[in-house]
Amino acid sequence: xxxxxxxxxxxxxxxxxxxxxxxxxxxxxxxxxxxxxxxxxxxxxxxxxxxxxxxxxxxxxxxxxxxxxxxxxxxxxxxxxxxxxxxxxxxxxxxxxxxxxxxxxxxx
Length: 108
Prior knowledge:
By secondary structure, the chain is of the alpha+beta class. Helices cover 15% and strands 27% of the residues. 27% of the residues are buried.
């Protein structure tokens, strides 16, 4: 069962390919661009694609992303889920919620 308050919108056609794992990220603020989302995942080998969902003004924005090393998706989602990120200066602080979907979801 998914935790209360966690929305799971339909991913883009690219993200919905079940053979490729992707990470559903929630909880980043409206001040974040695609660049800030990518930056969080840099230490895990980087991101190949990001799809930030519309939601300007929301404090709970969402994105789908694929890692450059997709086999690490489940591990990365577990490590970042519930983690506070951002420095409060250049990048607004927030607590991310991450979930792996697609091929790696059944193995997670």
